[in-house]
Design a protein that fits this description.
Elements (H helix, E strand, L loop, with lengths): L25 E8 L3 E4 L6 E2 L1 H7 L11 E6 L2 E6 L6 E3 L2 E3 L4 E3 L5 E4 L2 E9 L19 H11 L5 E6 L5 H11 L7 E5 L5 H9 L15 H5 L4 E5 L9 H10 L1 E2 L8 E2 L3 E6 L3 H7 L4 H5 L3 E5 L9 H11 L11 H8 L7 H14 L4 H12 L6 H10 L4 H8 L3 H7 L11
Helix pairs in contact: 9-11, 10-12, 11-12
Length: 427
Amino acid sequence: MSHERTPRTTTEEYQPSSSGAVAPGQPVLLCAFPTQIALQIPAPGVVVGRSWLAEAGVRDTKVSGEHLRFSRVDGRHYFEDIGSRNGTWIDGERVGPRERRGLADGAVLRVGRTLLVHRASFLGDPAPAPPIGLLVGPWGLGEVRTRLAELSRRAERNVLIEGATGTGKEHLAAAVIHALGRARKPRASINVAAVSAGIFEAQLFGWVKGAYSGSAEGGPGVFGTNDGGSVFLDEIGELPLDLQPKLLRALENREIQRVGAGSTTKIDVLVVAATNRPLEEAVERGAFRRDLHARFTARLTLPGLADRPEDVYAILTALAKRRGLALDSEQSEVEAVERLMLDTWSANVRDLDRVAAAVVAAGQLTLAAIERELQPLSRESLLTREAAERMVRECGGVEREVERRYGIKRGKLRRALGKVGGDGQAT
């Protein structure tokens, strides 16, 4: 294994405040397991060991008295194992004694039974935050919390939620509805992709008597039924182009026209839409109207699970509890937690919930209990382009590092990225 060149200490060294408080925008170590606490990175030369962690609020007898030390050169943090008994791991790889390694943003550091996530610039609250409704995120939902607080101060009526599959967009929609004071008002959820285009307009906006053959009675539609409340439109990016002007009118003028009616009806409905693909891309392709996209003046983005490993154990704990198992950190294997924190999670919390079911069945969190569930998530044959791109980002754009870290052969990775043509040649 090649060692990084030991950087020379310079006058640019980072000096944490003497109070030990985590200042906004400063680099931190977020303790994700066995407890949750934000730790300020110590000054260069300070020996980090069992006592240092205990004073910070993390008790771990598997950490050596003198375990590692940190340094910072040219704006980047480094760490060095100074001869610990049980070793130090970075992103699942053991670090050799006296080997100096750099800390990338989001890197997972294991010392003893403690798992830490390095954040180069942390803007959130140093105390772990409570759930947002059913969304658990002690550290990684800071931007979402900020945007929700802004929404509650404004009279927003068109809100767009973006996030990959399984990130919890419907749960966030419920939080948006609550923040805007409509939690006790009527509401409805519509999966746009699941509704036939032929009946979509009538289902949303209603119809009058005689509008269709055999329609003896009229109907108010989803918007009319939930006047004064809210409507959640999931997979809004799948809305056919010919129906988009009708939704635009509802968002722009707060009025709808029932199928077969000669006039419009005023409504007061909060519309929360969600998409698992960036709508900007659909706008550029001509698949989504630019003016309709612009009507969603308030937008929130849910990060993927792989982008917030510091939240994984907390989410798993909540999922297991909903299934009747209270996870005990003392009985949970640190290797299992680390494995979960390093997974790519192509279906995000949806996949983690499947792992939670396996943990509940086993009665505790062990590496053996989760491996059977994790293998299909990481198997090359199921490698999606989205997962491949995420892996490359996590590895600093180095494809060979993806092969080393995740066991994905480079040829398979390049095919998933679309860099190899049908003849097997690089494109």
